[in-house]
Amino acid sequence: MKLKTIAILSVPILMLILPACEPPLQDKKLTFTDRRKLERTGNASLESRIDQLLGEMTLEEKIGQMMQINNSEYSVSQDRGAHFGAPPDVQVSIDTSKLIPFIEKYKVGSFLNGVAVSNERWREYSQQLQEINMRYHRLKIPMIYGMDHMHGANYLENSTIFPHSINIAATFRLQFSADEATVVGEETAAIGHHWVFCPVVDLGRNPIWPRFYETYGEDPYLSAQMGAAYVRALQENPNTAPYRQAATAKHFIGYSDPDNGWDRTPADISDQTLQEFFVPPFQALADVGIKSFMINGGEVNGIPVHASHDLLTGLLRDQMGFKGVVVTDWEDVIRLHKWHKVAADMKEATYKAVMAGIDMSMTPYTTGFFDALKELVEEGQIPMERIDLSVARVLRLKMELGLFENPYPTQTAPPATRRPENVSKALQAARESLVLIKNENVLPLSKDIKKIVVAGLNANSKKGLSGGWTLRWIPDTDDLFPDYVPTVFSALQKEFDGARVELATSTDIVSRAVNADAIVLAVGEEPYSETPGNIYDIGLEEVQLELIRKAQSTGKPVVLVMIAGRPRVITNTLQDTDAFIWAGLPGFEGGTAIAKVLSGKVNPSGKMPFSYPAFSGHWYPYNHKNMERFFSHPDSMNTIAGFGHGLSYTTFEYTNLELSAAELTKEESITASMTVTNTGDRSGMESVLWFIKDEAGSVTRPVKALKHFEKVELQPGESKTLNFTIDPLKDLTYPDKNGEQLLEKGEFRVICGGIERSFFYTGGEAEQ
Ligand code: BGC
């Protein structure tokens, strides 16, 4: 019998529940005033300014700080419908007669949204908006502006567009996540974009979910690391001084795994799964000081998250210790009444959301929140201390960003956009994000190639490469895109100068392929964001499968490139496909990156940040439970590419996995080392992933869990020895359903490059 098993059977003294740094806050039964005291920072002058302002503010002025209005409501277009169809400059415009009442009467403290206009236009707009705010706000509290910059400054003309987060995750390089945030800051901090609604650390554990591409994939550790790198780079960028930006952790919590896979639909997630998988990435962002959280518009376990005191206060504030601003998602207060039906009217919806723990309502079209909250306070249903708690958080955010000192955008020319060094970072990220899933000696395409036929939905599409949240919420035409953005087709033409690169359709692909040396099929999806991305079937559409079959019928080598926000199932076509690349949504530089990988100028190095489903009806992530596969044939596969899979044009060998000790206690660590050698004939990059397997636990354990990763470049024949220091408190613990961290004695395994070594955790001094 294994030691761990003995430990568990002889519970509970051998199971260590780690003491939290301080007693759990929920035990303190905090009043709103206590809570406000607890959230005070060490900055005494800032806190006294907050106290002073709160003392001077009227109830209306306080409620206004808790509201965020969409820019459509004060743009110069006639009505909301016209606004969204209007030219970009009209969408980013101000009709003062519409704006002034929001500030004068409703004291609104925040606005949001936009589309891609020039940085000069944004500068003027932000200047005008803040000037009007300052003129009509009695206490001159600056407004804060929120933007969805999801993969670079996507609502700014001529900006540097990075790959979406699912691709950034595939690079396994935190630097790219940081680069993206740094460039967003450089391009937008000085033009009045104060508050960036990124990163998304919802887990990509439901591949049909239409926001899958906004995530960093299925693994909590990867997501936590990528998200934290983004937040640090955005919030701590000294080069944007005097301007600073706030990041937003979204969408807290459980949004990404709804039961039916559709956007904003109910999720049933056990407390255990929530704590073990969904909390850690959000916790990581809270730990690096992220300034805001945005809430999941769906329900979890029967309660809409916007109405859940357990999640918004018990979990987020008391357990996770988050002290910043909680903003609702789109219309999510009124939706408690209109959609979720947990409130009889707007007033009850407002009561529920505020008492659950929201600080600011993205209303975003109406002022009903103002009226409802005012009544609730005047009637004594919501105490003023509760309002003060939220307003203090909002004021603190504005002060920490320096908005009181620097409310206006730059008074000189806005910073340059699309600087060459930034574009090359986006290109490098795109290159390293492409995952070569299959290659039967066809890639890289020969230098002597005479003719390539290119076809497919995304063969000559700019919008397809960038996906949703690019220039518009959903970019529906390539006309929006600048000339300099290549498609796969135009990039291949440039790359294979001399070879004939021809674009084919489903009708002429067979005839065009007659004298071709290879067929490249860029299949996938059109752009979508949120609910419009709901689909019935994760299988690739029949019309695209038909194209693949036609290409295969020619007998020519077929290279399939999947350009899509989620993994569309293509298993039945895979056997006759010679090479398969998952390209995700690589952004403006994606066409070039794909062409360079196909030509071999770039050696692919991306690895799957999620498990690519083999079937439409059955899927589980790599870190599933043992019993998920217990009854299946050991060789059965439910993925065509598991988490961490990714081929290269060279080969890597993993040898000599060694551990510095066979046992450790709570105070000790073990160092695992592994030698990785480039055994091929060209240089390449390899992401080395370290997993831990807990052999037995009192709660069923995932078959393995990523704990560390590092990407290395190796020349042919070169070896590097890499280390992973196993810290029991960090790498061997897991939470129970209440969030208490457990560290259980017994056998563990470290797994790297398919090799495993076993070691034992024997407990700490105190437990001996
Ligand atoms: C989305 C958020 C986004 C917000 C503001 C919502 O519909 O769910 O991710 O930040 O709109 O545009």
Describe it.
By secondary structure, this protein is of the alpha/beta class. The chain folds into three domains: 40-400, TIM Barrel (Alpha-Beta Barrel), CATH 3.20.20.300; 434-620 and 635-641, Rossmann fold; 652-761, Immunoglobulins (Immunoglobulin-like, Sandwich), CATH 2.60.40.10. Helices cover 32% and strands 19% of the residues. The strands form seven sheets. An eight-stranded parallel beta sheet has the order 10-7-6-5-4-3-2-11. Strands 12-17-16-15-13-14 form a six-stranded mixed beta sheet, sandwiched between helices. Strands 21-29-28-23-24 form a five-stranded mixed beta sheet. Bound molecules: beta-D-glucopyranose. Beta-D-glucopyranose is lined by residues 112-113, 148, 197, 250, 329-330, 530. Beta-D-glucopyranose binds at residues 112-113, 148, 197, 250, 329-330, 530.
Write the layout of secondary structure elements.
Layout: H1 3-9, E1 15-17, H2 32-39, H3 44-56, H4 59-65, E2 67-70, H5 80-85, H6 88-91, H7 96-104, E3 110-112, H8 119-136, E4 144-147, H9 165-171, H10 174-188, E5 195-196, H11 220-235, E6 246-252, H12 271-287, E7 292-295, E8 299-300, E9 303-304, H13 309-319, E10 325-327, H14 334-338, H15 346-356, E11 361-362, H16 368-378, H17 384-400, H18 420-433, E12 435-439, E13 451-455, H19 462-466, H20 488-495, E14 500-503, H21 509-512, E15 518-524, H22 542-553, E16 558-563, H23 571-574, E17 579-582, H24 590-599, E18 612-613, E19 639-641, E20 652-659, E21 663-665, E22 670-678, E23 684-694, E24 705-714, E25 719-726, H25 728-731, E26 734-735, E27 741-744, E28 746-752, E29 755-763
Parallel strand pairs: 2-3, 2-11, 3-4, 4-5, 5-6, 6-7, 7-10, 13-14, 13-15, 15-16, 16-17, 21-29
Antiparallel strand pairs: 1-27, 8-9, 12-17, 18-19, 20-22, 22-25, 23-24, 23-28, 26-27, 28-29
Helix pairs in contact: 2-17, 3-17, 4-16, 4-17, 7-8, 9-18, 10-11, 10-18, 11-12, 13-15, 15-16, 18-24, 20-24
The structure holds beta-D-glucopyranose (BGC).
